[in-house]
Amino acid sequence: MTRPVDNPLPPEPRREPRLLELDAITLAFGGVRALSGVGFAVSAGSITSVIGPNGAGKTSLFNTVSGFYRPQSGSIRFEGRDITRLPAPRRAALGLARSFQNIALFRGMTVLDNIKLGRHCHLRTNVFDALVYFGRARREEVALRAEIEERIIDFLEIDHIRHAPVAALSYGLQKRVEMARALAMQPKILMLDEPVAGMNREETEDMARFILDLRAEWGITVLMVEHDMGMVMDISDHVVVLNFGQVIAEGAPAAVQNDPEVVRAYLGSGDVAELRHKLRAAASGTPS
Question: Domains (ranges, CATH) in the chain?
Fold first, then answer.
């Protein structure tokens, strides 16, 4: 007969698997190091934000993860697979999709056509199928259009502009269309490079809601670079801080916010109260 345990140990907290892992990434352009020994992990189902002052290496990091830059040393693993040497299109096909700091849409094309381009990496139609537009090509087109119109466009609330040329849209709507194109790639990780840069407070709140809903309803992991500290602290599960190409802090938003190294990187002093004031001002939209 088994004796009962008087003081059972508490259950281990659940840890989500690591979807993306960076280990000692170093990237240099000539004699200038953009990244130096950068390493951190992105857990499945999380919203992870990368922050840091201008020139800290955030966009270089994104370009390295997505395959536009190849690091001199270090490794990148996605779902346990080493993708360090894979080209960008192969990474996209595996489930890494991204937006860009400067909007990279085809301005002369409609919203719907721009979004459909996001699925290109998954299409199996060959040249002959496309030329005759029969069989597999037609089936893929019908399925793609149904998913985009019934799911992505409806989710991002852009039904009213689906046939509008991108050039005619406001900046905030163009940012939303770029996110829609990335979603058409069926991402496992959605990489957003400054998704609310240049937006007003209402547009920022809408984008924050979309990002939270993507994680909650679609199960998409988000890796985000963003300067809006109020938004970062509100919606992130994990925050990584870069400065001069190195990770100087990482952890939960509250812990990072109080880290003296982070304070010095942003303010040049150790005044935590001043950083808190700045963050509150950013969150409320009032000048600091």
Answer: 18-95+187-288 (3.40.50.300), 103-186 (3.40.50.300)
